[in-house]
Specification:
Order of helices and strands: EHEEEHE
Protein name: Ferrous iron transport protein A
Domain Ferrous iron transporter FeoA-like: 1-77
CATH topology: SH3 type barrels
CATH architecture: Roll
CATH class: Mainly Beta
Number of helices: 2
Distance between the termini: 37 Å
Shape: globular
Strand order of the largest sheet: 4-3-2-1-5
Organism: Sphingomonas quercus
Strand content: 25-35%
Number of strands: 5
CATH superfamily: Ferrous iron transport protein A (FeoA)
InterPro entries: Fe-transptr_FeoA-like, FeoA
């Protein structure tokens, strides 16, 4: 599922980023913000009617990105495992 398709407040992990689909500036900005495979992500807000921007929590940071940029970020469901007490 791509980031712009992720339901609000659902925790996921970034599976892959299609760096080739982004401009050099977009890719550099995302890397500077810590967007990379394995990082936790959650969509917090999406503008109505499919408009921009999308607010997402990447790691511990909240960022706003365009929907087209979010489409290059592929996510997978994140399962939080509980450690059983002995």
């Amino acid at each position: 599922m791509r980031l712009h398709q992720l339901p609000r407040n659902r925790l996921a992990r970034i599976a892959t980023v299609d760096w080739a689909a982004l401009t050099t500036n977009e890719a550099r900005r995302l890397r500077e913000l810590g967007v990379d495979e394995g990082v936790e992500v959650m969509t917090l807000h999406q503008a109505p009617f499919g408009a921009d921007p999308i607010a997402a929590r990447i790691g511990r940071m909240t960022i706003a990105i365009r929907r087209a940029t979010a489409a290059a970020i592929h996510t997978e469901e994140h399962h939080v495992s509980a450690v059983a007490a002995e």
